[in-house]
Amino acid sequence: MEEVKSIVREAFGESSNSEGEEEEYLNAHSAENLENGKRLSSESVFGGSHNWESITEIDGLWLCKDFLSTHQQSNLLSSIQQEGWFAASSSNQAMRFGDLPGWAVELSSSIHEVILFSNYAAELENYETGKEVCIFPQDLLWREPIFDQLIVNMYQPTEGICPHVDLMRFEDGIAIVSLESTCVMHFSRVENDTCGVQDPQHKVPVLLTPGCLILMWGEARYLWKHEINRKPGIQIWEGQEIDQKRRISVTLRKLCQTE
Ligand SMILES: O=C(O)CCC(=O)C(=O)O
Ligand SMILES: [Fe+2]
Predict the structure, then answer these.
(1) Between 98 and 259, where is the model more confident?
(2) In the chain, at which end, N or C, are there fewer CB atoms within 10 A of the end residue's CB?
(3) Which portions of the sequence form the region Disordered (predicted)?
């Protein structure tokens, strides 16, 4: 708890409030509602309020549906468009390593800030309820830079991505921002011969809505494959098939250090 407070102080400056007032202020502004470790609300000093959902079956998988406002989504889309990466119809993916475009650096900072506040809210909840909740581990949050690799994917309505675990040349801690078409991402456990009891067909669906952010770390990053199958008949949510349109995703990762 003290450690988190000192991190928040380091990032946002020393509060002139007394200890009690500071606690009261943060309680009022950052922690609201946690049901069985599944939902968490936090309001940052930047005025944004964010709701997080943990996918209970998968450790290290968090979804923030309201990460980007409609306005922020259109700004992000126009920054991507201005890169001119998708001007040729043959091109549907762009990758950058090291120095990322300004808008991607800003996006990374805003992911960092939102997690920082939400982790703080989670710590307050942990403190009060005795439950352990962590949206993104501190060592990943404070690495420098937080992300140094970017992939922007543009998918036409029936296109998606096959089941995979992201390459081991990337560190733990992956963030994906989803834009345009809503879709369902499915997670399936990496096959493991030593635990043959698991149903190989079992898939965990996660609804990605425009402007949402997903975080994958730990088990979610290493022990689960993720995929998006947008072929007819697969994109079903609550019994309804979701109409598929063009979709753009922004994936941020950190390359492993090579010595
Ligand atoms: O488009 C997405 O949301 C997923 C992208 C992805 O999984 C990847 O690039 O490794
Ligand atoms: Fe991936």
Answers:
(1) 98
(2) C
(3) 1-26
Domain that holds residue 60: 2-253
Residue 164 dihedral angles phi and psi, to the nearest 5°: -160, 160
What is the total count of domains within the chain? 1
- Using CA positions, which residue lies closest to atom 1 of ligand 1? 249
Query: Does residue 258 belong to any structural domain of this protein?
Result: no
ipTM over 0.90: yes
Has residue 87 been placed in a domain? yes
End-to-end CA distance of the chain: 35
Q: Tokens at residue 158, please?
A: 């029936």
CB under 6 Å to ligand 1: residues? Answer: 151, 153, 161, 166, 176, 178, 226, 228, 249, 251
Reference 105, options 249, 211, 252; nearest CA is 252
CATH number of the domain bearing residue 38 = 2.60.120.590
**What's the DSSP call for residue 87?**
S
- Rounded to whole angstroms, the Cα distance separating 215 from 176 reads 7
What is the value of pTM for the model shown?
0.83
Question: What's the CA-to-centroid distance between 72 and ligand 1, angstroms?
Answer: 20
Residue 198's pLDDT band (cuts 50, 70, 90): low
User: Does residue 147 lie in a domain region?
Assistant: yes
